[in-house]
Write a structure and sequence with these properties.
The complex is a heterodimer of chains A (about 325) and B (about 240).
Chain A: H1 2-15, H2 20-25, H3 31-57, H4 60-69, H5 71-80, H6 84-105, H7 110-131, H8 138-143, H9 151-170, H10 172-180, H11 182-187, H12 192-233, H13 237-262, H14 266-295, H15 317-322
Helix pairs in contact in A: 3-9, 3-12, 3-13, 4-6, 4-7, 4-12, 5-6, 5-7, 6-7, 6-12, 9-12, 12-13, 12-14, 13-14
Chain B: E1 5-14, E2 17-27, E3 32-36, H1 43-50, E4 58-63, E5 66-67, H2 68-73, E6 77-80, H3 94-99, H4 114-126, H5 142-156, E7 160-164, H6 172-187, E8 191-196, H7 202-205, E9 208-213, E10 215-221, H8 222-225, H9 228-242
Parallel strand pairs in B: 3-8, 3-9, 6-7, 7-8
Antiparallel strand pairs in B: 1-2, 1-4, 4-5, 9-10
The chains are: A mainly alpha (about 325), B alpha/beta (about 240).
Chain lengths: ~325, ~240
Amino acid sequence: MTATVAAELVAVAARVPASGWDLLTEPWQYGFMQRALLVTVVASVVAALLSCWLVLIGWSLMGDAVSHAVLPGVVLAYLVGAPFAVGAFLFGAGAVAVIGWVRATSRVKEDAAIGVVFTTVFAFGVVLVSVTPSQVDLSHILFGNVLGVSDADVWQVVVLGALAIAALVLGRRDITLYAFDKVHAHVIGLPVRRIGMLLLGLLAVSVVVALQAVGVVLAVAMLITPGATASLLTDRIWRMLWVAPAVAAACAVVGVWASYVLDVASAGLVVVCQGLAFGVAYVVARVRGRRSSRSGSSRRPAPGSAAPRAEDRPRDLPAEDRAGGPEQGVQAAPGG
Amino acid sequence: MTAALRITGLTVRYGDVLALDGVDLAVEPGEACGLVGVNGSGKSTLFKAAVGLVRPVAGTVEVLGGPGDRARKSGLVAYVPQADDLDRDFPVSVEDVVLTGRYHLMGPLRRPAARDRAVVAQALARVGLADLAGRQVGRLSGGQRQRVLLARALAQEARLLLLDEPFTGVDAGSEAAVTAVLRDLVADGCSLVVSTHDLSMLPALCARSVLLHRRVLAHGPTAEVITPENLARTFGLDQAGAS
């Protein structure tokens, strides 16, 4: 990945031979650019780590939900002069709790519960913005204002980001087991509910951090794309946890730098870089897949070869036990 | 002697649906018990209740002479799911999966000690997968993945194993390997509950069986439980339930 980045840098620098080196270094002379870079890199790394598990558990939509649901929290925090992280965290975590509660206590399915709750909370935020005095700039919240972050914002992002990274790295094995096999985790006495809560809490924290860098709308990209990219490049979670943050950090550097040079929105460019990195990873994975299928040796079994047989029914228990339809019978009765 | 698993008067409801109705079951140490029933008969519910994943309306579950959560904390119970229940694209190696069998014995960071790795290697050798330890779990056949999950229970050093349809979708070689390991476990004094709707494996593995259809329809020596009359009764109930 770094090779790609380097190649890109060289290509851009080559276009302006006279001031090539200046072009590379000039942006970083400004304090606002240094702060923007620091905030974007920290936010990218936190979100990228988390994204590895989110894409494996199938919680991408949950990232979308939390990132949108923080909007009213941010507005209210501005209004009362509290740190915006507090408001964002309260509303992000609150939305997760309401989603879980609606799903568990009604017949509404999870994606619908997520959709209803986060759009409602987000809409409430939009209403709040419309009635607040003009110091709250909606577009800054929605699309980020990383070039305008204050020193206090930077501190907030760095401290929260460091805590989240530490928690994710130290808890990686438990979180991975949670993502892979919750039942086994429960059976050997691990606190499964607590691990789930920790993960959702860290999701809220990473949204709060990403908010500063890329805003509410694009935060979800940082919570999905790096994990998806890493999952294309390696089939070991432990390697994904290196690849995803490295790719995301590289995209942050390139995106912030290029946004200065090209004079375009930095948040948008950072996320576009992540999308391009995903595209590259996709092509690499396809080419690699084709090559290994030609050599044939250690390939995974073809889809269908070990597929569930006809007599396997969905084993999600409540559904199974509720099913009253014609059931598979007991087979091969000896002496019958 | 304390039973490995003692279930008394277990009743479980999902909303309006009665999944289990007053089920009694006792499994002694060193005993393998077959749990026979059609799909939807409550076999999986029984397992879930045994490991505390569903809360019964009535009845008690006792594991190795104590409450279930105490046995779970000390890793004495293992649940072996069907291989197809787990995401086969999940990016972990065979060794990673089997190591999770020992997480409760490790520190809070779950960093494996030399002994953990040794036990895992032993478990993998027992199920005949020693040379595949480094492979991603999806790059195995269904039967091999089933053996990985059995190896995880071995690495856990559990005394009570609950096996959910361990022979479904499993090739003959894996079936023989799994059966041999399970017989050894029983000889070592471990207890098994083996749920199945495939009866061909049952007599060779389980001396005793329970025929379940929300209630216990029959229990006793496997040969006496799996009679044409009993099975017809189960079928009949199933048809009645379907109409």
